[in-house]
Amino acid sequence: MGEITYIDAIREAQHELLSSDERVFIYGQDVGDFGGAFKATQGLKKLFPDRVLDSPISEDAMIGLAVGAALEGMRPIIEMQFADFSSVGFNQIVNQAATQFYRTGVPSPITVRLPSGGTPGSGPFHSQMMESVYAYYPGLVILTPATVADAYSMLIESVALDDPVLYFEHKFLYRWLKADQLKDGKDPLPIGHARVVRAGKHATVVAYSAMVHEALRAADLLASEGWEIEVVDLRSVKPLDTDTVIASVARTGRLLAVGEAFPWGGVTAEVVSRVTSDGFHLLDAPPQRLNSRDTPVPYHPNLWEAHRPTLESIAAAIRNLLQL
Amino acid sequence: MVVARTLESKLASLYKAGKIVGGVYIGPGQEAISASIGSCLSWDHDIFSALIRDQAGRTAFGEPMLDATRSYLGSVKGPSRGRDGNIHRGRPNNGLPAMISHLGAMVSVVAGMLLARRIKGCLDGVVGAASVGDGASSTGSFHEAMNTAAVEKLPLVVVLTNNQFAYSTPNDRQFACKSLVDRAVGYGVPGYEVDGTDLSATLRVISEAVSNAREGGGPQLVVANALRLSGHGEHDDASYVPEKLRNSPVGRDCMEVAEQQLLSTGLITDAELLEWKKEAAEEVQAAVAQAQKEPAPDPFADDWAVYASTEIAPVS
Fold first, then answer.
1. Class at the top of the CATH hierarchy for domain B2-293
2. Which CATH class is domain A4-179?
3. Which fold has domain A195-323?
4. Pairing status of strand A178-179 against strand A4-5
5. Which of A97, A133, A127 lies closest to A115, judged by CA?
6. What residues 40-99 of chain B have any CB closer than 8 A to a CB of chain A?
7. Is A202 a catalytic residue?
8. Which end of chain B is more exposed for a tag (fewer CB within 10 A), N or C?
9. Is the interface score ipTM higher than 0.95?
């Protein structure tokens, strides 16, 4: 493990974008001199004083403003302080940004950064996973980077895309996840492509965002019990790379879809639904899902650990799947 | 105003004849306000977010009439190619963003268009106007956008037409302040209030607000009072509007007031007015006929593309 963190990658990507493209500006709460609640924009205001702008606490207006700016040819990056607060800007995201190109033929290339997911003690309003909610809506691109290299390259790609992109960055990974370098030496995978991050033959675990790391740890544990578990990182939940998932299931015959989001519907349900429809003949056992519990995200670490999928609960779900 | 009244009357007739699918939303009684906004702005230079009752403003701003008839009559050649209809049309690349139905939501879009031009260094002499109503003024979206525009000191003119009813809801169930112009103080922006049935007064006030914004005075809030002389849409008979209100000064028809103003000051003659109406009728007839003979959208020909990026489009 190196010294470059996931949040360094996000900051560096924004630095690179501001440097290389005059159409890019950053707008959000406390993103200016303060450098953002998580320091993802630290130092950028000094370098680009006219293109790093503090916003009032007005998530609706922030997104509306971004769409307006995009219509004028800009490439705004909006920082939601927490993904949870995007609910206030929901209307502008799903009705203004998402419908714009379909209705008018004019693109609205905005990138919304959404610090997502749980960290101990954050509670119901600073921990949510919102990707499934937005993935429901046509016209949005929904990204969930799980590595330092993806955090960097996918943010660069988000801004390059001519469509509204919701970039869900996981707060737990911000400083926990480290790499030697910003780019992993390989050409970044294009948006919409999943990656097999661990090869296996007994079961496939499909995960995204922070759950990729929990799934990898569970796969390590299962390896000590003699099982070879394949782990697929979706990277992008919309578009959803059904081909890579089904190819993996063709190798393993078993599927567990893991997400940190609430269990009703959503990304894991979509994965299971697609595999069942298109790859039923490949399955040796009923496909399984593991999500958080169907309650608000609890505050206390004891409850929180039991609320979301973890190494232990994923390992248990895999063992169960292997016995079906 | 004459063109808008003529066009909207025709659209209402077509709706009643079953020739238009979906709703028809017209703005009789509000043309003086709407036309005043449009005539203070320049196409391809300024920005105008037209709302539900802004045919007059759209026409004055420069929107081609065919955009209206094609949108209402479902021609595939309309600006939305049949993907959206009626008043949701727009031409964002010419400064006319396409409204969504969620009220108040367009104000921040105009603010963003203005902010973009500031960053690009081409904001000088530009104004963005957003049309809203008394109903929109109750939304959080409206409030957030007004405040944001004020913080950024953007050249935004918000014209709030208080037409006394949001659908069927009267003012006394919509807001509790004395006048909606009182809100301007809270946003720290200049506020104006005008009798929206009076073209001469309305044009003067809106011109002043637009000039002030153009000259760097920041956002301006104009409240113009009028009565909607139609239903919310053509499906609505507006039976909830009290007779007393219809007969009060706010219920005056701005078209009649404007005609009197123009005739009594000698700016136009009766003959010229008649000629305007004749020309408007001919223009409307031609635009309707053109849209009616054009093909409707074909679900097999539409590419159903929802993404602008070609690298995303083929993946489901």
1. alpha beta
2. alpha beta
3. Rossmann fold (3.40.50)
4. antiparallel
5. A127
6. 79-81, 83-84, 88, 90-93, 97-98
7. no
8. C
9. yes
